[in-house]
């Protein structure tokens, strides 16, 4: 609860700073807000505090909260150093980010369907606005409208599912729904089936899993690159945590029945994401398809539904978040310099900015799942979760997909090392350099010492 | 308390009505090309859900469903505000709200 | 299915109960249809240019009615909708005012305070300035 209050208060302060000529206090206020929120979240580790029968800060919620807070921290710093002087809406952007984090906290800690809905909407409404930040840019406009229409459409499905489940069970509480499902062996009742399927459609829309992924490439490409990075990390991780939570706390008696559905969605998502990514010229669009395929890998862990699922999903989220942050940060910086997001902007990057080329290479290695990066162990844990549950065929398909993905992840890396391009040095602010280096080191460090991170929750 | 009289209408009737309204909304979203009409269709979907929740609420004699409806209405209002602002922004740039004109983003 | 008993018991009685509504519908449709046909048949048909003009209290009509109007109206309208809808949260509080006591007052005060903060932001950022 303290986390929510702090984030909201920091958001309101940042919002007021813009109208009272206090641009310079925005960054200190928001960063201290983030740190305080993280501190109070960690303070509740192992306590399982329940608030108003609507939210529970269990370890699962705290871990995902901290991951999202970290991603937002990186985003805020990058946004500050790239747009502080150029963006008139600088303070508003940061306050919207803080408000969206309040939504994230609700999304990962809910125990009631009402809070699930509110959390998703708080995050989504913030993201709709962020996608359209560049008011004069037609691509940004288009991305924002498409995101809004598709997001609202998905919310409709989500709500219809919740209403159906309420009709059958008479409660919005996840524990009551799970109790009802277990007691009546009611997984096949028409209301329950409609409810769970509709809810699944709504949530799969939000995590961008096939066949509900079609909005993703357009939105990711059209939105400002840093915002795309925020959507691809915080938006996706929070939505995925919500999906895992709703199925574990609410529908665990029914999970067996829906396993095959998840398997089908996971396989389609991986293949569509990876194969379409091969044909992309724009790096942003390529990363969008790659993020779709990563939703597929994470769905495998959810489908396995055993005691290692939570750990595997958390580890995958951390690895994916770190690598995506790096990738989008580099693309954003290059796009600001050259105005293009084609693979060719990477030509000669190893000469013009060795740091950026090496961090980008680390990010791509991690996303492709090659040791010794975090991405390798992320995939390893997901696959071992699936195999321990007997899902060998899906693991084989997932490994084939990982090989396909190597091809497109390496295209920009090869361009930056092998091809000649503009060798004029790119100057970065020192904090940005430090940030990039730290994230890259973290990716390597987690890859070398995966240790107990996956048994955290 | 919720009046008993509402329970004399069988719950299925409410479910059918809201399912039909919901499907009309879905078809509207999928077939229309004017952004504002798509938005109205989405609102129709949300209102179908509201009707469903209220009828289940009276069926179960449980006020939680009606509270949920309040939240849906408030969130829908916020969504409309954001949505119409985005549509106005686009109208200022292109003088059109036809989503078929929006195909600049292609792979 | 949990709803089966209720619906089958109610179904026998309800069909007959809808009869008055059906009759009402027939009368309503019949009245509209009859009057429309009757005026069409009975009324004299004179179609001069003046008669087809839009009537605006005797003043000559100017221009097209389908003109876009200023975005400022629209902004005010949106802000009105936002604040207007939040009032629905006051109703359940007002109904249970006594039971909720001081805690309810404080909670509502916080809620209203947050709304007010939004309003202050709107005024300060100049969204309501007419020029």
Task: Using brief descriptors, characterize the structure shown.
heterotrimer, A: about 450 residues, mainly alpha, two-stranded antiparallel ribbon, 2 strands, about 75% helix, B: about 110 residues, Helix Hairpins, 3 helices
> Structural class given helices, strands, pairing of chain A?
mainly alpha
Main sheet strand line-up of chain A = 1-2
Q: What CATH first level of chain B would be assigned?
A: Mainly Alpha
What percent of residues of chain B adopt helix (DSSP H or I)? Answer: over 70%
Mean pLDDT of chain A, to the nearest integer, reads: 91
Largest protein interface, residues of each chain: A-B, 44 and 43 residues
Number of helices of chain B: 3
> Helix-strand pattern of chain A, N to C?
HHEEHHHHHHHHHHHHHHHH
What count of domains describes the coordinates of chain B?
Answer: 1
Beta-strand residue percentage of chain B: under 5%
The rough form of chain A would be described as globular
Describe the largest sheet of chain B. none
The CATH topology of chain B is Helix Hairpins
The count of β-strands of chain B is 0
What is the typical, i.e. mean, pLDDT of chain B? 88
Largest sheet of chain A: 2 strands, antiparallel
Quick one: how many beta strands of chain A? 2
What is the first-to-last residue Cα distance of chain B?
A: 56 Å
Descriptive report:
- The complex is a heterotrimer of chains A (457), B (107) and C (131).
- Chain A is 77% helix and 1% strand.
- Chain A contains 18 helices and 2 strands.
- A two-stranded antiparallel sheet of chain A has the order 1-2.
- In chain A, helix 1 (2-19) runs antiparallel to helix 4 (90-109), helix 4 runs parallel beside helix 10 (225-250) and helix 6 (138-169) packs across helix 9 (215-222).
- The longest helix of chain A is centred in the middle third of the chain and has 32 residues, at 138-169.
- Chain A is globular and about 70 Å long.
- Chain B is mainly alpha-helical and 107 residues long.
- Chain B has 3 helices and no strands.
- Chain B has helices at 11-31, 35-60, 64-94.
- In chain B, helix 2 (35-60) packs antiparallel against helix 3.
- The relative contact order of chain B is 0.13.
- With 131 residues, chain C is mostly helical.
- Chain C folds into 2 domains: 7-52; 71-124, Methane Monooxygenase Hydroxylase, Chain G, domain 1, CATH 1.20.58.
- Chain C contains 6 helices and no strands.
- The longest helix of chain C is centred in the last third of the chain and has 28 residues, at 97-124.
- Chain C starts with a helix and ends in a 7-residue tail after the last helix.
- Chains in contact: A-B, A-C, B-C.
- The interface between A and B is large, with 44 and 43 residues.
């Amino acid at each position: 609860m303290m986390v929510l209050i702090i984030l909201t208060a920091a958001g309101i302060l940042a919002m007021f700073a813009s109208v009272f000529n206090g641009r310079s206090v925005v960054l200190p206020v928001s960063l201290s807000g983030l740190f305080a929120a993280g501190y109070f979240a960690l303070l509740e580790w192992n306590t399982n505090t329940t608030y108003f029968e609507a939210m529970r800060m269990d370890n699962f919620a705290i871990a995902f909260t901290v991951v999202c807070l970290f991603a937002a921290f990186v985003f805020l710093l990058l946004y500050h150093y790239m747009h502080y002087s150029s963006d008139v809406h600088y303070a508003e952007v940061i306050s919207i980010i803080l408000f969206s984090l309040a939504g994230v906290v609700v999304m990962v800690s809910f125990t009631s369907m009402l809070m699930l809905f509110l959390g998703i909407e708080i995050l989504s409404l913030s993201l709709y606005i962020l996608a359209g930040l560049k008011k004069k840019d037609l691509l940004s406009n288009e991305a924002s409208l498409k995101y809004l229409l598709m997001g609202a459409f998905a919310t409709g499905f989500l709500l219809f599912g919740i209403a159906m489940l309420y009709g059958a069970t008479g409660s919005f509480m996840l524990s009551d729904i799970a109790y009802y499902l277990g007691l009546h062996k009611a997984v096949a009742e028409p209301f329950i089936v409609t409810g769970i399927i509709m809810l699944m459609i709504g949530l799969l829309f939000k995590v961008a899993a096939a066949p509900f992924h079609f909005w993703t490439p357009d939105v990711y490409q059209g939105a400002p690159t840093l915002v795309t990075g925020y959507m691809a990390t915080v938006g996706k991780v929070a939505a995925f945590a919500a999906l895992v939570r709703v199925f574990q706390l609410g529908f665990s008696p029914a999970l067996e029945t829906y396993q095959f559905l998840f398997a089908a969605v996971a396989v389609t998502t991986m293949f569509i994401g990876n194969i379409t990514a091969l044909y992309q010229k724009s790096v942003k669009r390529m990363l969008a398809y790659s993020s779709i395929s990563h939703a597929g890998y994470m769905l495998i862990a959810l489908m396995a539904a055993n005691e290692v699922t939570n750990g595997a999903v958390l580890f995958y989220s951390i690895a994916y978040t770190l690598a995506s942050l790096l990738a989008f940060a580099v693309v954003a910086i290059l796009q600001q310099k050259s105005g293009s997001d084609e693979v060719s902007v990477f030509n000669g990057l190893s000469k013009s900015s060795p740091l950026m080329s090496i961090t980008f290479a680390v990010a791509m290695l991690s996303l492709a799942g090659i040791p010794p990066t975090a991405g390798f162990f992320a995939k390893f844990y997901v696959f071992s979760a699936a195999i321990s549950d007997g899902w060998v065929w899906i693991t084989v398909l997932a490994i084939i997909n990982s090989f396909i993905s190597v091809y497109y992840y390496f295209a920009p890396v090869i361009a930056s090392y092998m091809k000649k391009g503009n060798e004029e040095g790119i100057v970065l602010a020192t904090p940005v350099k430090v940030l990039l280096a730290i994230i890259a080191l973290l990716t390597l460090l987690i890859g070398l010492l995966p240790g107990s991170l996956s048994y955290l929750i | 308390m919720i009046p008993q009289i509402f329970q004399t209408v069988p719950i299925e009737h409410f479910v059918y009505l809201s399912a039909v309204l919901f499907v009309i909304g879905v078809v509207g979203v999928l077939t229309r090309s004017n952004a504002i009409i798509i938005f109205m269709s989405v609102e129709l979907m949300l209102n179908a859900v509201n009707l469903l929740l209220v009828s289940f609420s009276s069926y179960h004699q449980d006020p939680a469903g009606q509270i949920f409806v309040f939240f849906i209405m408030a969130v829908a209002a916020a969504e409309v505000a954001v949505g119409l602002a985005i549509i106005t922004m686009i109208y200022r740039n292109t003088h059109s709200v036809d989503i078929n004109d929006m195909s600049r983003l292609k792979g | 299915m949990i709803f089966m008993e209720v619906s089958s018991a109610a179904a026998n009685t309800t069909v007959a109960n809808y009869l008055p509504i059906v009759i009402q519908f027939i009368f309503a449709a019949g009245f509209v249809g009859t009057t429309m046909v009757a005026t069409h048949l009975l009324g004299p048909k004179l179609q001069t240019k003046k008669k087809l003009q839009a009537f605006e209290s005797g003043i000559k009509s100017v221009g097209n009615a389908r003109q876009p109007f200023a975005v400022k109206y629209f902004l005010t309208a949106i802000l009105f909708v936002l604040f207007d809808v939040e009032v629905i949260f006051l109703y359940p509080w007002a109904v249970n005012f006594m039971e909720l006591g001081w805690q309810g007052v404080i909670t509502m005060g916080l809620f209203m305070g947050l709304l007010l903060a939004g309003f202050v932001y709107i005024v300060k950022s100049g969204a309501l300035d007419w020029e």
